[in-house]
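Objective 1.3, modelling of assemblies. Example input:
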Amino acid sequence: MILVTGGAGYIGSVTVERLLEAGEEVVVLDNLFRGHREAVPSSVPFYRGNIGDIELVARITRAHSIDACIHFAALAYVGESVSEPSRYFENNVEQGSALLRALLGAGVRQIVFSSTCAVYGEPREIPISEQHPQQPVNPYGWSKLFMERMLEGYDKAHSLRFVALRYFNAAGATEQHGERHQPETHLIPNVLSAAIGSTAAVDIFGNDYPTPDGTPVRDYVHVADLAAAHLLSLRYLSEGGCSQSINLGNGNGYSVLEVIETARAITERPIPVRSQPARCGDPSILIADATKARELLGWSPRYSELSEILRSDWEWRIKNS
Ligand code: UDP
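Predicted structure (C-alpha cells):
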C-alpha cells in the first residue's frame, strides 16, 4: 500500500487517480489546508492531519501495511515563502523531518519526494541538469533542499531509498482534477480566470528580466505527466533502484507574455493585463534538462506543447466554472 501525503492537493490528487487506475492501494494523509476533501475518492482511506503528527503517522502505518510513501504535502508559494519564511521552515522542514522519522520508525524505506526546480536558484546555465549547483533564492526552495539533504542522510545511515522529483512548472488538468488554490498565485490559473471573467485582469510581475521579452521564462509540464513520473519512480524503487534526484520538465521555455498570447488564442477571449513590480524570489529563466527522467525512469511526457497543457486546463475550467 502507498501512503500519499498531500493527496488532496493538485498534483497529489492526480497522482492518486493514476495510482488507483494502475491497481495500487492508496491511503491519503492531508490536513486540507489548501487541499480539497472531495478530490480524494471515498474508496480511499483518508486521514485528516499534519505530516508532523508522529502519532497519527504511526497509527496509519500500523493500520495499513505501507510499502512506500509519496510525500507531496507542503506549502508551495514562492512569494509567500519570502514574506513568511517561518511557515515554510516549520511546515515543510520541521514537519517533513518528523514525517521521515515516523516513516523510518515504521520501517517504510522507499520515498518519492515532491521537490522543485526552485532548489537550483538563479540558473548559471540553461537547460538545468541535476548537476547544476543548488543555491535557492527563496525559502520555499531552501525548504525543499533541506528535505533532499535529510533524505540523503537517511539513505546513508538507514538505507532509506528515495527519488526526489524536481518539478519545473506544474500545469494543466485531467478530466477530474485541475488547479484551484485559494489564494491562487500561479500564472496559468490566473490567466484562465481572467479569460473566464472571474478576475478583471492578469498581473504581469516584472518586465525587465534578462529574457527576450523581459518577462520570466518557465518550463510548463502537465500534471498527468508529473503523476506518471511518480508511478515510474515507485516502480524504480521497488525494483531496488538507488536514490536519485530527477528533473521533470519538457525542456521548452515560455515567457509570461507567451503564455498569455497562447491562452488568448486557445480561449478566443480577451485577457486584460496589468503591469506590476517583479515578485521577490522569482528567477528569470527555468528550463529543465530532463534527459535523466527519460533514460532512468523511461518517462516520456505526453503533453509537450504549452497549447495542449493550456487547453486541458481551459476545458476543465469551463466544465467546472
Ligand atoms: N506570474 C505573473 N502573474 C501571475 C502569476 C505569476 O506574472 O499572476 C509570473 C511569475 O512572476 C513567474 C511566472 O509567472 O515569473 C510563473 O509563476 P508561477 O507562480 O506560476 O510559478 P513559479 O515559477 O513561481 O513556481
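Residues 203 and 274 are 5 Å apart (CA to CA).
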